[in-house]
């Protein structure tokens, strides 16, 4: 069954969607969208290190992503705003990675595959890496779910409850690094943050509890993956961008459904 490249692509996309769903909720709640972009951009430097030193891609990308998190944490508050530190490190890592790849001798690298992904070229080994990474992310977030929620809603209450908000932030940093490392081969460094943000944003107006939002985001992400692959197959579209376009359409539908629901509730309240 796994000899069929479309089945491998679908399984890889589903694994990524399941990992992005709960993590994307925290990215949306904490307003970390730009942070996700910065981590994804830094992943290209991990690609360069992987090629230069002949090490596996997955640990190289995780290492660079965590270094990005440490760099942002170190610069923030030292005469630099958080968004300024993110902007500097994000663009510096992206440019350094692209330049570094060009200096790797004897390697022909299609940067488009790392920038925009190549889900149709996923191998069995890639599939195992993606699902192991997704499982690790889901397990980590499930373990820290209550603490992360409290630290997100009220850091002061979290401290009073014996929870360290900075430690919970690092749990999110590790989860984000795992997702970027697993997803760079699927939708690429430039589009991975879209899979984190758009399904969660689409689910937000449709549900009332954090857990329901995570589940709904997973369903929307999976639907977007399958819809994007179907569009790529039938219309000869680039698969990674097609997946992001599909989840964007679902986001617009979610906004419409949420607006209709709010209108009905207002009318119902006015008749009471």
Describe the protein in words.
The chain has about 270 residues and is an all-alpha fold. The chain has a domain at about 5-105 and about 110-190: ABC transporter involved in vitamin B12 uptake, BtuC (Orthogonal Bundle), CATH 1.10.3470.10. Helices cover about 80% and strands about 0% of the residues. It has twelve helices and no strands. It has helices at about 5-30, 35-55, 55-75, 80-105, 110-115, 125-145, 145-155, 155-160, 165-185, 190-205, 210-235, 240-270. α2 runs parallel beside α4 (about 80-105). The longest helix is centred in the C-terminal third of the chain and has 33 residues, at about 240-270. The model has no long low-confidence stretch (mean pLDDT about 85).
Question: What's the topology here?
Answer:
Layout (H helix, E strand, L loop, with lengths): L4 H25 L3 H21 L3 H19 L6 H22 L7 H6 L7 H20 L1 H9 L1 H6 L4 H19 L8 H12 L6 H26 L3 H33 L1
Helix pairs in contact: 1-6, 1-9, 1-10, 1-11, 2-3, 2-4, 2-9, 2-10, 3-4, 3-9, 6-9, 10-11, 10-12, 11-12
Overview in brief:
This protein has 272 residues and is mostly helical.
Q: Which strand-content bin applies to the residues?
A: under 5%
Q: Provide the structure class.
A: mainly alpha
Fourth-level CATH superfamily of the domain at 5-104 and 112-190: ABC transporter involved in vitamin B12 uptake, BtuC
In one word, what is the shape?
globular
- Low-confidence segments, ≥5 residues, pLDDT <50? none
What do the pLDDT scores average to?
A: 84
**N- to C-terminal distance:** 58 Å
Please give the largest β-sheet: none
CATH-derived architecture of the domain at 5-104 and 112-190:
Orthogonal Bundle
């Amino acid at each position: 069954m796994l000899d069929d490249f479309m089945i491998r692509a679908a399984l890889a996309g589903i694994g990524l969607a399941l990992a992005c769903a709960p993590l994307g909720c925290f990215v949306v709640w904490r307003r970390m969208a730009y942070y996700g972009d910065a981590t994804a951009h830094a992943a290209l430097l991990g690609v360069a290190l992987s090629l230069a030193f002949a090490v596996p891609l997955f640990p190289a990308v995780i290492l660079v992503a965590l270094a990005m998190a440490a760099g942002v944490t170190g610069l923030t508050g030292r005469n630099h705003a958080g968004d300024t530190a993110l902007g500097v490190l994000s663009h510096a890592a992206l440019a350094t990675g692209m330049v570094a790849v060009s200096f790797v001798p004897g390697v022909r690298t299609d940067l488009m595959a790392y920038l925009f992904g190549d889900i149709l070229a996923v191998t069995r080994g890639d599939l195992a890496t993606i699902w192991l990474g997704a499982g690790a992310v889901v397990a980590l977030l499930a373990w820290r779910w209550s603490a992360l929620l409290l630290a997100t809603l009220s850091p002061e209450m979290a401290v009073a409850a014996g929870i360290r908000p900075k430690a919970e932030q690092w749990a999110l940093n590790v989860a984000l690094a795992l997702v970027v490392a697993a997803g760079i081969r699927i939708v690429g460094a430039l589009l991975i943050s879209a899979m984190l943000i758009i399904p969660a944003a689409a689910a937000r107006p449709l549900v009332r509890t954090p857990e329901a939002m995570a589940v709904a985001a997973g369903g929307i992400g999976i639907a977007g993956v399958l819809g994007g692959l179907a569009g790529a197959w039938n219309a000869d579209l680039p698969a990674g961008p097609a997946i992001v376009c599909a989840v964007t359409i679902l986001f617009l539908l979610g906004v419409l459904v949420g607006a209709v629901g709010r209108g009905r509730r207002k009318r119902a309240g006015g008749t009471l």
